[in-house]
Design goal:
CATH class of the largest domain: Alpha Beta
Structural class: alpha/beta
Mean pLDDT: 91
Low-confidence stretches: none
Radius of gyration: 25 Å
Number of strands: 26
Number of helices: 19
Strand order of the largest sheet: 3-2-4-1-10-9-11-14
CATH topology of the largest domain: Glutamine Phosphoribosylpyrophosphate, subunit 1, domain 1
Number of domains: 3
Length: 612
Amino acid sequence: MCGIVGYFGKRKASEILVDGLRRMEYRGYDSAGIACLFDGQIGLVKNAGKIKDLRAGVNASTDASILNATLGIGHTRWATHGPPNELNAHPHLDASGHFAMVHNGIIENYKEVRNGLAQHGVECISDTDSEVLIQLIGYCYQGNLEDAVSEALKKIKGTYGIVVMTDHEPGKLVTARCGSPIVLGIGKDETLVASDASAIIPHTRDAVYLEDFDMAVITDDGVEMLDLQHAPINREVTAMDWEEGAAEKGDYAHFMLKEMFEQPDAIGNAIRGRLDFDMGTAVLSGLDFSPRETALIGRVLVVGCGTSMHAGMVGEYAIEEMAGIPSEVEQAAEFRYRNPIITPTDLVVAISQSGETADTLAAVREAKHKGAIVSGLCNVVGSTIARETGRGVYLHAGPEIGVASTKAFTCQVSVMLMMALKLARTRRMPRHEGEELCGWIERMPELVEKVLTQNDAIKAVAQKYAQCEDTFFIGRGYLFPVALEGALKLKEISYIHAEGYHAAELKHGPIALLQENTPVVALLNNIPGKDKTLGNAEECKARNAPVIAVVSEGDEGVADGFDDVIVVPDCPPCITPVPTVVALQLLAYHIAAARGCEIDQPRNLAKSVTVE
């Protein structure tokens, strides 16, 4: 993986390809390249490094295929097999040099395929799993590209999103997907292919999302949709709702900073029209349960990875506390492979910002196979999880470009709270309590705004700890997942070793690691368990570890004697995670900035994790 773009039309392909890759930089990558086809020749430019280096190589090229082509493919690679270098960068050519391909995903049986090709005299030259696929396509070719692609795909195991071209058929692109997203942009006299809508938005709003085992053949006559047996299929053309400017950072130093400051508006969009004050409940039209169907839900299982899993943990607490429904959160990969016990009365909620997370998608399919009620909570409209669940809630957070999730997390929590409210009102929550909670949910944008006004104060705290190499975050109850998320943000973008713990767990081993240069961020907000967490923070202080106390407004005296204090608005326990996590996002951001880290594209990370 990571970014795919293809172009077939009348304009200069190389410019569109490089610009499309630039728009997908946020996904994370370590090498990039393009291949263009003109006058029966394939031209190739690729390198390890950044898009700006690729652009320089393209601009310096004298190859007519690069200069004049109106058809081509491009790729940004996030290494899975083999180090980032020019040889391993995409696009890959087959041994004959007549076929070119870009690929996202993992070919699980690549060693077997490579050995089989070698027995027929076809040798791979890169370290990648991807190369075996284009070598196999070239080997299978008998005069028709889509025949060769489908034949090759039947021989591989794993996931793929691919775009292929050959100089034997210079007026054709073939694309296919299984487990890795592909979207077609349908323009006037041109068609674009991408793994991400951001590469298409500047050119057209009309999109076709491929589903698993779909294949599309793009020619001058338009787009023909087929399955791998060449049977025609229909896929709906949908209108993408992204605004082009939303994927630009404007006057902000980083996308992450911009997206943190967008959170009041993003949360407002996530909750707008979804609160029913008259009935004291939430209106989530994507969860089209009748009150009776809702009342029959016996258990809620939330699946996700990383930040999405942390949001799910907040939802777990809220659903159990408010609705009295047993709830569990599972790491999505673990959910799939441990053969979970699932019943028809279980509601499985899959959370994924991109809607393409491979482990979460696999969990969705497992839950559906076992007969559960399955819903999705995604930010990207038309994403695979959204389509395959067919039931769920969109976040409406807008594009999130920074690899480290910020506004998507707070919107996920917001939607989980509304889901808990909806479930609670069909169970034991009286209307007046529902009305009160509606009021607090509606106020969340205002609470976040108050935290953002403290940006400079939090920056001052961050600069004191920018050179630390280890940090701990502790919290209880609703703030335990916030501690996990705060630690994750810090390690993602600053490369500081950071761990989140339940406050009671710190003394069961990790406290041995505390010393005077190991700060502890203690979440001492005014919620049940605060006094116990305060005692744990005192234990850290007694071992010479500096303590950064996060406290509720009006309760600042709790932090007396600690090294630094961050104040967040006082609010009910279930609401507290939202303003608190924003403070921790700012803390992580300013520490990373002080260390000179590449905040929007942290090393080794990708925005959309489409491999297991």
